[in-house]
Amino acid sequence: MARFKIVTTGPGKTDHSLEMETLGPIGAEIVEISGDENELIRAVADADAIYGKGRPRITAKVIEAAKKLKVVSLGSVGVDSVDVDAATQLGIPVTNVPDTFIEEVADHAMTLILASWRRLVVQDQMVRKGEWTKARPHLYQFPRLMGMTLGFISFGHVARAVAKRAAPFGFQMLAYDPYIEELVMSDYGVQPVGYDELLQRSDIVSMHAPGTKDAHHLMKEQHFRQMKKTALFVNTGRGSTVDEPAMIKALQEGWIAGAGLDVLETEPVGHNNPLLAMDNVILTAHVASASSRFDPARKRRVGAELALVLGGKWPRACVNPMVLEKSKLQRWQPFSMERGPGN
């Protein structure tokens, strides 16, 4: 009989061998269930841990039903699939993988910045349509990238990695993040500014805020109106940070010049979404973190986090570190946590 029961969701035949590299030695088993919230509630009644995979959402009802619950672990950066407040109230740590896919997401953000600025999709279409001679005149109307201003909304791990990539292109860089010390921004050659100033000065605005309550619809209609008409908006963070109808209106009415989007407020994108018909918008399917190392890295990390907590230790990454005061867990070496939407 297993010492620890970990409940997760899936089709029932998922290979968990990578997670079990660290969970097997401590006598844990992963029990996979399929179904809705009610089935999850029944399954976690005697569970020691929940391994969250997005759906169904780990609500307060699920957490309260798990009387033996010690930890909720996610194989993602975002934690919007868990009621973190409910977990915190019950002294349950919620872990994520905030530093596993930084380089991939930064690469993707930089790709969207460059492709949007150079109107890559439109240029590609011109070649395919036999409009070769129109391509060069089309780019004559846009300035060169060097000397443009790149503004980061939130300056966590991904934004910092993008700043390192952007610096050689000759960008002037700004950032708004009230949770990050100004000296951190300065170390990356980035000037800390207020939110309004960032929107007004930036030629490209890059969104990196997480899907938290505080960051919900951080970009509304009034914010798009503050941007330059020649500016671009790039989002590789979370779709919930943007009021999508307001962004669509901004693009349709020319308040901004274009957008590069890996995330949307509703995913998958609906077939009638106006963004699909806009040639000044580049869309990707929430794939910024994807690479050949994605599954192995995150699965091993989830296994390690679960093993730490089930073994009585504090996890490497915890989104609600205030539960340490209520917890019987011991700190592991080393312990470090930055807080706020900059992560």
Automatic annotation (TrEMBL):
Domain of life: Bacteria
Residue ranges annotated for the D-isomer specific 2-hydroxyacid dehydrogenase NAD-binding domain, each copy included: 110-288
Keywords for the protein's UniProt record, in alphabetical order: Oxidoreductase
Entry keyword Oxidoreductase: yes
Coiled coil: none
Alphabetical list of Pfam families matching this protein: 2-Hacid_dh_C
Keyword Oxidoreductase: yes
Protein name as it appears in the record: C-terminal binding protein
Annotated source species: Reyranella aquatilis
Native organism taxonomy: Bacteria, Pseudomonadati, Pseudomonadota, Alphaproteobacteria, Hyphomicrobiales
